[in-house]
Design goal:
It contains three helices and no strands. By secondary structure, the protein is mainly α. It has a domain at 53-123. 2% of the residues are buried.
């Protein structure tokens, strides 16, 4: 007696799988597209953060420079009025006007702005080298 196999051409792989492989490929491609978009978004966010940090640093540098120049100019003005007063070219009212308290808050504000900007620089989120 001979034993017959009811499945003579059995390979263990389905020949007709109803498109499940094509669906799996499309699913993998979609997953790749989503991952690539998420990566691109992350890179763009990082670039935006760096750009923001650079703008903050540049702005702080400009404020420090402006405050320093303003303080230097105020000192030069005050010293010039004092020298002019000593030479007899200005009266006491001019000298007092140069040093009245309404100018001092501006001078203090310039110094405090410079100090505040200098304090902000190291607090940036990322260390960025900026050419001077």
């Amino acid at each position: 007696m001979s034993v017959t196999n009811s499945r003579p051409w059995s390979f263990g792989l389905p020949l007709f799988n109803g498109g499940s492989r094509r669906a799996a490929v499309r699913s993998a491609a979609s997953t790749y597209d989503v991952s690539a978009a998420a990566y691109q978004s992350g890179v763009l966010d990082a670039v935006a953060e760096v750009e923001t940090a650079l703008v903050r640093i540049d702005s702080a540098r400009r404020r420090i420079c402006n405050a320093t120049v303003a303080a230097r100019n105020y000192r030069a003005y005050f010293n010039a009025v004092g020298a002019n007063w000593q030479a007899g070219g200005a009266n006491l009212r001019d000298r007092k006007y140069a040093g009245v308290p309404r100018n001092r808050p501006k001078f203090r504000s310039a110094r405090s702005t410079a100090a505040r900007c200098a304090a902000e620089l190291p607090s940036t989120k990322h260390a960025v080298a900026v050419g001077t």
